[in-house]
Inverse folding.
């Protein structure tokens, strides 16, 4: 998901480098700008700001790691120990994290880095629309509790990286409340899809999540790096990370203590001025501007899906929820098993990537190799969609014919 940088974001990077402030904290412009920009971002996706806290980080990987650290800290305190003092040692039940088979691998990394180990991961199957299966999730929680384990977090997706699937947040939130679990939403790519009126109903309940990860450097076209970790309980987030030297310790409301010291809300002490490019991009485009971009990209994805469905030699492999379309070339009148189709489509992808005419990546859909088109460039036109279709069909036809001749 390599989006083009917003022009004002590029300028903001230059200005931020010239000012070169330390964004650890203090009473200066960089801190005011980050506080405002993050709250604007919360408002953009409908996340409650009262009591919540957000911090800009490098991207979705660090955002989810930050949020899950807060989840672990809450769990430990509720069960009578302090993970910051005691770690994960001692005679305690293993903690369990639940995510779908479509979840991003950054969540696996976060579980490893938090010392939980991947054996504490439960990968839950998905339904026909690639959303986490709620009944299977409920069963897994019941089984783990009966085995003496300690379920503590469900990681949902607001737009999976493979297909753009959006989990059913209201149902997940109800389940997490009933089971006393933390609900984290990975919205690195797709959380801003809520701005599309034709898709906003899919996000019902996202505002009930305990934490949310967003990458403005994806669909909002803020230059890399710019991710955001948002936690509903801001005091908990501070309690999870705060360990500051005496020479920068502040008392709230006094001196330079009127604004948050971001070094107390995440792992970093030295922090770059990421907020300026986000603030300028949001200021320039506004909610309405981003809503138009997101809505247009989603509509273009549906247009692309229509072109695929109409072509006799193309096959769509997943529903189109946001701006991602997964499909493959399947030569008409030339029977091929899935293994040969996988090899053919991999070769198509590699040749198209090398040609420079268009660009597709890949995804594994039900074990099948899929060509994956992700529309997040603000300059993409409907003509570009036809260029992609023509390129895939031309390269696919030539490679399939050559393959048939070799046999």
């Amino acid at each position: 998901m390599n989006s083009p940088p917003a022009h004002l974001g590029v300028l903001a990077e230059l200005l931020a480098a010239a000012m070169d402030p330390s964004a650890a904290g203090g009473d200066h412009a960089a801190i005011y700008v980050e506080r405002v920009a993050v709250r604007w971002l919360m408002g953009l996706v409908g996340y409650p700001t009262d009591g919540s806290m957000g911090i800009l980080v490098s991207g979705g990987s660090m955002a989810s790691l930050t949020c899950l650290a807060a989840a672990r800290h809450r769990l430990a305190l509720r069960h009578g120990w302090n993970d910051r003092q005691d770690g994960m040692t001692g005679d305690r039940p293993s903690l369990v994290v639940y995510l779908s088979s479509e979840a991003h691998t950054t969540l696996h990394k976060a579980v490893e880095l938090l010392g939980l180990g991947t054996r504490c991961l439960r990968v839950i199957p998905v339904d026909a629309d690639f959303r986490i299966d709620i009944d299977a999730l409920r069963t897994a929680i019941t089984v783990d509790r009966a085995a003496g384990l300690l379920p503590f977090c469900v990681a949902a997706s607001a737009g999976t990286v493979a297909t753009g699937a959006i989990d059913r947040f209201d149902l997940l939130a109800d389940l997490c409340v009933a089971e006393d679990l933390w609900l984290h939403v990975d919205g690195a790519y797709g959380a801003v899809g809520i701005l599309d009126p034709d898709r906003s109903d899919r996000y019902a309940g996202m505002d009930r999540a305990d934490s949310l990860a967003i990458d403005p450097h994806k669909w909002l076209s803020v230059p890399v790096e710019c991710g955001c970790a948002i936690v509903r309980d801001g005091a908990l987030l501070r309690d999870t990370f705060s360990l500051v030297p005496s020479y920068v310790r502040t008392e709230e409301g006094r001196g330079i203590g009127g604004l948050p010291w971001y070094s107390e809300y995440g792992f970093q002490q030295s922090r770059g001025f990421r907020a300026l490019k986000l603030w300028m991009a949001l200021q320039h485009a506004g909610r309405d501007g981003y809503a138009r971009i997101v809505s247009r990209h989603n509509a273009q994805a549906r247009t692309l899906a229509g072109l695929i469905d109409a072509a006799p030699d193309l096959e769509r492999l997943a529903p189109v929820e946001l701006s991602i379309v997964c499909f493959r070339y399947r030569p008409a009148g030339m029977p091929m098993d899935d293994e040969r189709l996988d090899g053919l489509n991999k070769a198509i992808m590699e040749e198209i990537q090398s040609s420079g005419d268009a660009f597709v990546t890949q995804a594994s859909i039900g074990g099948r190799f899929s060509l994956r088109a992700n529309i997040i460039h603000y300059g993409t036109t409907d003509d570009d969609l036809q260029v992609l279709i023509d390129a895939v069909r031309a390269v696919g036809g030539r490679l399939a014919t050559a393959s048939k001749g070799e046999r």
Remarks:
- The chain has two domains: 7-287, 311-406.
